[in-house]
């Protein structure tokens, strides 16, 4: 029996940034090199997770909750697999938390990523996720992201879209914002963009 195709919440965020990034990773031998900026962001991310273990829950406006770190979750039914930075569990409710080293607020791609983790938590742990948190280690701001019906539907639709072009090995259209291509390390492979 063939294994179901699983995509990651991170790939949903990458797909929102540019659909071709995921296509190159999944359907071609082309791999992105890790830039200095990416390495720096990854190291800051780890530092933030270590600091989080010493903090209270006050930034989440929660008084109680069990923290579960680096939670790996897989749901063949959703077609998703991924590792969540942090899940705070309070009774039957749970709150996924993502950390990012950026000075920008969360964009729609970040919200899709966080909501995908919420869908995984609900499907696999039988908990309810009313909202999640997205924390910037640069600005020290914590944003609350509600998992409303619209975001949930958009997340499910994005999963289907990404799975669809990977299964069909069909190159998706480029980003609609060509300015992103100027600094993209995949530019040499996207002959039709600039
Ligand atoms: S060059 Fe542009 S279209 Fe191609 S992967 Fe990069 S951002 Fe996307």
From TrEMBL:
Record keywords, A-Z: Antiviral defense, Exonuclease, Hydrolase, Iron, Iron-sulfur, Manganese, Metal-binding, Nuclease
Any Pfam family hit: Cas_Cas4
Names of required cofactors: iron-sulfur cluster; Mg(2+); Mn(2+); [4Fe-4S] cluster
Cofactor, free-text remark: Mg(2+) or Mn(2+) required for ssDNA cleavage activity.
Location of the DUF83 domain: 10-190
Chain segments annotated as transmembrane: none
MF (Gene Ontology): exonuclease activity; iron-sulfur cluster binding; metal ion binding
EC number: 3.1.12.1
Annotated function: CRISPR (clustered regularly interspaced short palindromic repeat) is an adaptive immune system that provides protection against mobile genetic elements (viruses, transposable elements and conjugative plasmids). CRISPR clusters contain sequences complementary to antecedent mobile elements and target invading nucleic acids. CRISPR clusters are transcribed and processed into CRISPR RNA (crRNA).
Classification via NCBIfam families: cas4
Sequence similarity: Belongs to the CRISPR-associated exonuclease Cas4 family.
Protein name listed in UniProt: CRISPR-associated exonuclease Cas4
């Amino acid at each position: 029996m063939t294994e179901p195709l699983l995509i990651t919440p991170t790939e949903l965020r990458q797909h929102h940034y540019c659909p071709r990034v995921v296509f190159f990773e999944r359907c071609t031998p082309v791999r992105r090199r890790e830039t200095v900026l990416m390495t720096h962001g990854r190291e800051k991310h780890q530092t933030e997770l270590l600091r989080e273990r010493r903090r209270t829950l006050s930034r989440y406006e929660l008084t109680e909750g069990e923290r579960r770190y680096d939670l790996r979750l897989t749901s063949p039914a959703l077609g998703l697999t991924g590792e969540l930075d942090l899940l705070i569990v309070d009774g039957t409710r749970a709150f996924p938390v993502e950390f990012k080293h950026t000075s920008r607020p969360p964009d729609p791609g970040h919200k899709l990523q966080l909501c995908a983790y919420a869908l995984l938590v609900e499907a696999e742990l039988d908990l309810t996720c009313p909202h999640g948190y997205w924390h910037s280690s640069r600005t020290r701001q914590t944003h609350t992201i509600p998992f409303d019906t619209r975001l949930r539907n958009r997340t499910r639709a994005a999963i289907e879209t990404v799975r669809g072009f990977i299964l069909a090995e069909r190159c998706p259209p480029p980003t609609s914002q060509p300015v992103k291509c100027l600094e993209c390390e995949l530019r040499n492979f996207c002959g039709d963009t600039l």
